[in-house]
């Protein structure tokens, strides 16, 4: 009997995160889903862990839950993140602290725990969700804190991919454009869609398909998959 694989998804209560939970369940994985306010799931293949992933204690519980409940951990998707768009000089200290805690702290603690488990198993996969704005900034959408933090995730993706390639652990990133989720009011969507050469916003399914492609590509590590409607190619 084949062992069922196990994924951990952070930021899993809505939007892309909730879509990732469904996508991994759709390919037969068990899932540990985390977000600050996530409720219990009625799916026996999904265990939820409520709490702020930037808290090291929560990160430890999330990974321990995967191992204790399902016996292993195959994939971690670092999806939790926040985006605050302001002119650089208008960011507050609270903005800075909050974005760094979630976007970097939320990655660091849970990924340390996850990779330790994956190395012990001899196999595993980490996927970081970043943003195309890291590489292709846009003056109409100021994003310095996203670049500072998600840019760090982009850099560490290659660093960890090389560090752990010989120990069975792959590390990749998905770099979305603007995705049509409830965080974008309807009146802003036409303007945001115009950022993409294909002329539309991305969908949650677009992103989950990208993550699942990387999941099923065992010779791919250290890669950035742009799911951005051509935004990274130019205008």
Helical content stands at 40-55%
Oligomeric organization of the protein chains: single chain
- Please state the second-level CATH architecture: 3-Layer(aba) Sandwich
What's the rounded overall pLDDT mean?
Answer: 92
User: What composes the largest sheet?
Assistant: 7 strands, parallel
Content-based structural category:
alpha/beta
CATH class: Alpha Beta
CATH superfamily annotation: NAD(P)-binding Rossmann-like Domain
Helix tally equals 6
List the helices and strands in order: EHEEHEHEHEHHE
Based on CA inertia axes, which overall geometry fits?
globular
The structural domain count equals 1
CATH topology descriptor: Rossmann fold
Can you offer a commentary on this structure?
The chain is α/β, with parallel strands linked by helices and 235 residues long. It has a single domain, classed as 3-Layer(aba) Sandwich (Rossmann fold). Helices cover 40% and strands 16% of the residues. It has six helices and seven strands, in the order E-H-E-E-H-E-H-E-H-E-H-H-E. The chain has helices at residues 15-26, 56-70, 93-121, 144-164, 189-193, 204-215, and strands spanning 6-10, 30-35, 46-50, 75-78, 124-129, 169-176, 224-227. Strands 3-2-1-4-5-6-7 form a seven-stranded parallel β-sheet, with helices on both faces. The longest helix has 29 residues, at 93-121.
Q: Quick recap of the structure?
A:
The protein is of the alpha/beta class. The chain is 40% helix and 16% strand. Helix 1 crosses helix 6.
């Amino acid at each position: 009997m084949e062992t069922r694989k196990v994924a951990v998804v952070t930021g899993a209560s809505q939007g892309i995160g909730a879509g990732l939970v469904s996508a991994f369940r759709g390919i037969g994985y068990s899932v540990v889903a985390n977000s600050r306010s996530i409720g219990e799931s009625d799916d026996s293949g999904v265990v939820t862990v409520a709490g702020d992933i930037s808290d090291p204690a929560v990160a430890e519980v999330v990974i321990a839950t995967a191992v204790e409940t399902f016996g292993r951990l195959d994939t971690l998707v670092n999806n939790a993140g926040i985006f605050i768009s302001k002119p650089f000089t208008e960011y507050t200290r609270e903005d800075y602290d909050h974005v760094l805690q979630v976007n970097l702290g939320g990655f660091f603690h849970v990924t340390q725990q996850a990779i330790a488990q994956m190395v012990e198993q001899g196999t595993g996969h980490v996927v970081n969700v970043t943003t195309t704005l890291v590489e292709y900034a846009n003056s109409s959408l100021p994003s310095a804190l996203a670049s500072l933090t998600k840019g760090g995730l982009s850099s560490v993706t290659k660093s960890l991919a090389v560090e752990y390639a010989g120990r069975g652990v792959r590390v990749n990133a998905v770099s979305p454009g603007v995705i049509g989720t409830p965080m974008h009011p309807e009146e802003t969507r036409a303007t945001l869609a115009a950022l993409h050469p294909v002329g539309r916003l991305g969908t949650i399914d677009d992103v989950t398909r990208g993550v699942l492609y990387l999941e099923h590509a065992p010779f791919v590590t250290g890669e950035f998959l742009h799911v951005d409607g051509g935004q990274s190619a130019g205008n």
